[in-house]
Design goal:
3-stranded antiparallel beta sheet, 10% strand, 5-stranded mixed beta sheet, 10 strands, alpha/beta
């Protein structure tokens, strides 16, 4: 038993001994502002502008880029993991405050205040949703408006997952325009552009200020029934930010009314087409617009890949080792207690079927309630989710390995009068080890993929 305790202690040390890396994890009580952004270029660039303005005001700031979609980033804001991030009024009305009457800025401000969230004035541009087609394809079949799509039921549609799920997204558009198309694929937004160019899809969702519209020569279909609301860019921030970092908030609010649609398209194009780092494009715009002398940190492809690889491996070690230490005993219990084993096997099987986004959204407030970081690299949310996803193959294989031991081996061990724990550790588990290790291998593959 002493040997087992030593092995467990070494494994836990291997999992949780911190590895020094740059940056401050979200939720760390460091003296500075934490800025978040969603997983698309414009959000990242605006996040960099907020960070640079905060630093210019004398407040240390950290930007956690591409945290995910609306639900994840908003949850991070409400939980206090980040302090501020760029958002859009249409998204606030249709996704964040769904079902509430927020027809006026005052109503929206009051509803957000109940969540502990403040909102800035619009930044100056409307990045509304639109449906786009290759210009050549649209001209070929005579499509100019969204209503025209009704005459072409064979068109193939590819939309971002968030657009498909949104209250004002595909289902609402289909109902509003009575569109007959049934071939709709859920795609990563960047992938949709490539598939459109290759002719694999005919229509995709787009953002009005996306630089890739010109890059891929897309035409945006006229929203002739005025389905999409305005998506004026704003800043959402924690209500206590004005008390904690007033200078940083005042600096960020300099963006109010400071960016029109043409300028935002230009900044996006500098990143997407000109391959400028988002921080550099943001710094150049601030220098041109406000005359600020700020420098955007550059990041090479090698340093970026290295950093992300280290973050990935860190997530794997922090989740796979605890999963092994948890799943193996559960597998033993399942094998020794058949009735309880049915419940255990069923539970870990159900966990495996939960979509990753849903599991993250459920776990985030729990981790935040425990004062653990719930977003960003190495977050407790990601680690716990990966542990849960890694359980099934190890539990199942441990159970199968132990229940598959030949009866004569069990009877021989019992006939020797050996204690139950000794039989388990010295005879049964070694005989089942091949199956257990196969489960660990499968769990590792699942873990790396989800990470």
């Amino acid at each position: 038993m002493t040997r087992i305790a030593v092995v467990i202690a070494l494994l836990l040390a291997a999992a949780f001994v911190p590895i020094p890396r740059g940056g401050r994890p979200p939720g760390d009580a460091g003296p500075g502002v934490t800025v978040g952004s969603k997983k698309f270029t414009e959000s990242v660039v605006l996040g960099e502008m907020i960070r640079l303005l905060a630093e210019q005001s004398g407040t240390p700031a950290e930007h956690y880029r591409e945290l995910g979609g609306t639900k994840l980033v908003l949850q991070a804001l409400v939980n206090g993991e980040i302090d501020i991030y760029p958002e859009y009024t249409g998204t606030i009305a249709e996704e964040i405050l769904t079902g509430q009457s927020v027809d006026t800025p005052e109503a929206m401000r009051a509803a957000l205040a109940e969540l502990g969230v403040g909102i800035s004035e619009p930044l100056g541009f409307n990045n509304t949703y639109a449906l786009g087609m290759l210009r050549s394809r649209a001209e070929e079949i005579g499509v100019e408006t969204i209503s025209d799509l009704a005459d072409h039921p064979d068109l193939r549609l590819g939309f971002g997952h968030e657009f498909i799920d949104r209250a004002d997204g595909w289902q609402a558009v289909q109902w509003q325009y009575a569109l007959p198309q049934q071939s709709v694929a859920g795609l990563d937004h960047d992938l949709a552009y490539r598939q459109l160019q290759q002719g694999l899809i005919d229509v995709m969702d787009a953002y009005a200020t996306d630089a890739k519209i010109a890059m891929y020569d897309l035409t945006l279909l006229e929203d002739d029934r005025r389905h999409f609301p305005r998506y004026d860019a704003v800043l959402l921030y924690r209500s206590d930010l004005a008390e904690r970092f007033p200078a940083a908030l005042d600096a960020a609010r300099r963006l109010e009314g400071a960016i029109d649609e043409r300028q935002m398209v230009g900044v996006n194009a500098a990143v997407v087409v000109g391959n400028q780092p988002g921080a550099v494009a943001a710094a150049e715009y601030l220098a041109e617009r406000f005359g600020l002398s700020v420098t955007g940190e550059t990041e090479t492809a090698v340093s970026r890949v290295t950093q992300r690889t280290l973050e990935h491996l860190d997530l794997v070690r922090k989740s796979l080792i605890p999963a092994i230490l948890l799943a193996a005993p559960l597998g033993v219990i399942a094998a020794k207690k058949p009735k309880l084993g049915q419940f255990i096997l069923g539970a870990v099987g159900v966990i495996q079927t939960i979509p990753s986004l849903a599991l993250l959204v459920v776990l985030m407030p729990v981790m935040a309630g425990l004062s653990l970081p719930s977003v960003g690299p190495g977050s407790a949310t990601a680690i716990v989710a990966l542990v849960l996803y890694s359980l099934l193959p190890i539990v199942r294989n441990t159970h199968a390995g132990l229940t598959g031991i030949a009866r004569e081996h069990r009877e021989a061990a019992a006939a020797l009068g050996l204690p139950a724990w000794y039989r388990l550790v010295e005879i049964e588990l070694p005989l089942a080890s091949r199956g257990v290790l196969a489960g660990v291998k499968t769990a590792a593959v699942i873990n790396v993929g989800f990470a």
